[in-house]
């Protein structure tokens, strides 16, 4: 009996972290269930922030057509001047539109995840997991593109690069938390189904 337990323990030790179910045992400071709630609230807030930033970026890019100069005052003075290529400007506008659309989808699936967590319906975690992976991947390529084509001399672009880099790390962590919670609940459901069959 003890040899069986020790061999099972050795197998678990040898198993790599990415083969474990669940991937994470906890969410650093809390359990997976509460960590998933925090993830849904985080992505809800992040999606609202992304919508605001996308609308602001669209406004700035539309105001700053090549060759024009506009002045605005929003508590601080803004000088809208765009001196770049019009095709790059159009790609930046496209990036903002796609970010806005994806953030609306992320907002909806964050609300779905909150409801699924309350009822512990792990199958409803899938839309959030899919949306979070797509949204995080898109944000990575979008911020990479914006950092290359925008002048990082300006504090706004530097701040966006730093903030989005930090948020992308948080996104990856929260995806792992929700995925681990999904795996844990799926394993429990499978065990319950097997017990019903016996």
TrEMBL record:
One of its GO terms (biological process) is septate junction assembly. The chain crosses the membrane at residues 37-62, 91-116, 128-149, 161-182. Keywords: Membrane, Transmembrane, Transmembrane helix. The keyword GTP-binding does not apply. Signal peptide: none annotated. It comes from Nephila pilipes. It comes from the Eukaryota. This is Uncharacterized protein. The keyword Membrane applies. GO terms for cellular component: plasma membrane.
């Amino acid at each position: 009996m003890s040899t069986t337990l020790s061999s099972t323990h050795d197998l678990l030790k040898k198993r790599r972290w990415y083969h474990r179910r669940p991937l994470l045992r906890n969410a650093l400071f809390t359990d997976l269930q509460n960590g998933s709630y925090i993830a849904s609230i985080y992505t809800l807030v992040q999606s609202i922030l992304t919508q605001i930033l996308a609308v602001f970026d669209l406004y700035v890019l539309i105001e700053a057509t090549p060759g024009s100069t506009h002045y605005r005052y929003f508590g601080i003075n803004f000088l809208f001047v765009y001196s770049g290529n019009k095709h790059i400007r159009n790609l930046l506008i496209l990036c903002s539109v796609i970010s806005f659309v994806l953030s609306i989808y992320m907002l909806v699936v964050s609300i779905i995840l909150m409801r699924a967590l309350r009822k512990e319906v792990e199958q409803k975690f899938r839309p959030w997991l899919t949306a979070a992976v797509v949204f995080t991947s898109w944000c990575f390529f979008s911020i990479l593109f914006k950092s290359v084509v925008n002048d990082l001399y300006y504090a706004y672009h530097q701040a966006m690069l730093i903030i989005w880099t930090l948020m992308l790390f948080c996104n990856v962590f929260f995806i792992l938390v929700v995925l681990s919670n999904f795996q844990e609940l799926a394993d429990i459901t499978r065990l319950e189904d097997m017990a019903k069959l016996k």
